[in-house]
Amino acid sequence: MASVRIAYEADIPTIQSIAFTAWPVTFGGILSPQQIEYMLHMMYGQEALAAVLNGKNQLVLIAEDEKRSPVGFSAIEFSYKELDATKIHKLYLLPSVQGKGIGKLLIKEISGYASDRGDKSLTLNVNKYNQNAIAFYQKLGFQKVREEIIPIGNGYYMDDFVMGKMLS
After folding, report:
1. Among the CATH numbers 3.40.1280.10, 3.60.110.10, 3.40.50.300, 3.40.630.30, which is that of 3-121?
2. Closest CA relative to residue 6, chosen from 78, 59, 71
3. Mean per-residue pLDDT for 5-18?
4. pTM for the full model?
């Protein structure tokens, strides 16, 4: 049975490996190879991940399959922008395990941590052309809240939907 655990700095190579495997599959038909490479290095470099792992109100979770092999991760931030919402900054799975309930397990764990911290909702950004991810989140009760275009440097932008879900 799959499980979820808290990540630590020793997990940085694991997180990087999952991201560098999942991103080209996830975004290959959406973003240019140059933008994928730029974003991977910007978001998943050693220093960037260490900052997330040690960030105030932040938590990184590792999903493991039944053999305890890491197959996904999520990075979240409690009380995002001082609101009672937990922001899901990252949620990626190896392509080989997508559709097997592990993403749903991560969302369930995130919801528990968020509720324990007093947050009332979950929020996230998703690329508006990533139909698989949008469908996944909608199936779990997330709704589109608004659109957002975010400049990320080097002439690149994230063209996203902001989605949200109330916690029960």
Report:
1. 3.40.630.30
2. 59
3. 98
4. 0.96
